[in-house]
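Input.
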Amino acid sequence: MAESINLQGAKVMVIDDSNTIRRSAEIFLVQAGCQVLLAEDGFEALSKIAEHNPDVIFCDIMMPRLDGYQTCALIKKNARFRHTPVIMLSSKDGLFDRARGRMVGSDQYLTKPFTKDSLLQTVNSFVNQAGDA
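Output.
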């Protein structure tokens, strides 16, 4: 199913302190034609977001220094990026985590480990949704 998804030119940022998660997401996204931006934590991400203006942002919840909730809240408070979709990434699939993600403005929640299909379909839904608006 994911083979038919073409995300040519979509700019996707992956913020995660796990090198494995960043690299696997990068491989899946690059194969689908995305430009990929990587960041290890919220601080690194915020400067890159301002510089590159990604179309979609994946943000891990559990990170050192600035966690995913704080990072998402800061992105959503910035008028320039308020409408940029932020998808929370977490190995915990709890109701509380999802609710807390919604409270800080996240647009979706993806449980780790994610599959290539789930990652690409998530990006596709936001990129094509933006194109239709």
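The mean pLDDT is 92.
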